[in-house]
């Protein structure tokens, strides 16, 4: 395996600029936070470009037929990053964008973690970390030769033994229709992954478990498109794309700040600061 060009550097991706679409998706997420008074913002902001490229350029799907048998599947195993998924699904027409204003409210369908039985476009109910990849592996086995499955996991989630047990099985069964994307933002709920439980060499670990591995800046749209356009990276092997990201990407107040892993009752000043950083008018 080629040595990773991305050392364990929590600043990776800081210089990658956001275009208007990436900013607009984040604005929609901030307004959902404002309506709900809570949300996993830092964890969701690091996911936006990964999900955007998947839904804009890679996945086969039909919002009018969310359960179409021929669709590709996307499982957000890192379920607490649901706000990013909701913003994308609303943007793609799976449900009205107005639903974001009812995020985490009794009258709405969008909870703090995604629920497949309630939200069109959600493939699996996730949030209990380590479960999404096993579910995605089962889907990949079921639709082999017909569709592809993409699973997004968090780096802190890779502490879970179920991730690696599943990786062994995916390699054994040669699931080259399965791609794992790791949101490697180098932070977990209360601190840096390097301090909580070091993961490096993360790409090397997936390679040792039988995956074909590539690594990218997870906020670089061109690099993401190029890498995801090549899956499977090797015939007869599952693929792993290590996406080096920034927790809270796009808002200096949030970047690398564990206080924004989950935010309860953000103040009006904090909401205004988020919107200002994203060049959006306060609303």
Structure, explained:
- α3 runs parallel beside α4 (82-92) and α3 crosses α9 (221-228).
- This protein has 283 residues and is α/β, with parallel strands linked by helices.
- The protein starts with 19 loop residues before the first helix and ends in a 6-residue tail after the last helix.
- The chain has helices spanning 20-36, 41-45, 48-58, 82-92, 132-142, 161-172, 193-196, 202-208, 221-228, 268-277; strands spanning 38-39, 73-76, 149-154, 178-184, 187-188, 191-192, 212-217, 239-244, 263-264.
- The strands form three sheets. The chain has a five-stranded parallel β-sheet, sandwiched between helices.
- It has one domain: 3-Layer(aba) Sandwich (Rossmann fold), CATH 3.40.50.970.
- It contains ten helices and nine strands.
Tally of helical segments: 10
Fraction of residues in β-strands: 5-15%
CATH superfamily: Thiamin diphosphate (ThDP)-binding fold, Pyr/PP domains
CATH topology: Rossmann fold
When the domains are counted, the total is 1
Largest sheet: 5 strands, parallel
Name of the CATH architecture: 3-Layer(aba) Sandwich
Q: N-to-C terminal Cα separation, in Å?
A: 49 Å
- What form results from the Cα inertia axes? globular
Q: What percent of the residues sit in helical stretches (DSSP H or I)? A: 25-40%
Structural class: alpha/beta
Rg (CA only)? 18 Å
Lateral arrangement of strands in the main beta sheet: 2-3-4-8-7
**DSSP summary, beta strand count:** 9
Q: From N to C, what is the helix and strand string?
A: HEHHEHHEHEEEHHEHEEH
Task: Look at the structure and give the CATH class.
Answer: Alpha Beta
How confident overall, as mean pLDDT?
90
């Amino acid at each position: 395996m080629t040595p990773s060009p991305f050392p364990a550097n929590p600043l990776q991706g800081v210089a990658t600029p956001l275009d208007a679409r990436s900013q607009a998706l984040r604005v929609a997420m901030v307004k959902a936070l404002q309506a709900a008074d809570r949300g996993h913002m830092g964890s969701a902001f690091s996911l936006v470009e990964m999900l955007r490229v998947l839904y804009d350029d890679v996945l086969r799907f039909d919002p009018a037929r969310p359960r179409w048998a021929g669709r590709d599947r996307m499982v957000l195993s890192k379920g607490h990053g649901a706000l990013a998924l909701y913003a994308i699904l609303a943007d793609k027409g799976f449900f009205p964008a107005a639903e974001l204003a009812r995020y985490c409210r009794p009258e709405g369908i969008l909870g703090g973690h995604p629920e497949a039985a309630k939200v069109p476009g959600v493939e699996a109910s996730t949030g209990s970390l380590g479960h999404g990849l096993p579910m995605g592996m089962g889907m990949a086995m079921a639709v082999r030769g017909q569709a592809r499955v993409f699973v997004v996991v968090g780096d802190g989630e890779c502490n879970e033994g179920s991730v690696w047990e599943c990786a062994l099985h995916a390699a054994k069964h040669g699931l080259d229709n399965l791609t794992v994307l790791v949101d490697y933002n180098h932070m977990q709920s209360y601190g840096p992954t390097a301090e909580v439980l070091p993961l490096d060499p993360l790409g090397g670990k997936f390679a040792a478990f039988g995956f074909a591995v590539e690594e990218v800046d997870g906020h670089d749209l061109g690099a993401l498109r190029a890498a995801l356009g090549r899956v499977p990276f090797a015939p007869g092997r599952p693929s792993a794309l290590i996406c080096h990201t920034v927790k809270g990407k796009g808002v200096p107040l949030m970047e690398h700040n564990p206080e924004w892993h989950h935010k309860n009752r953000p103040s009006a000043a904090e909401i205004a600061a988020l919107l200002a950083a994203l060049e959006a008018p306060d609303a």
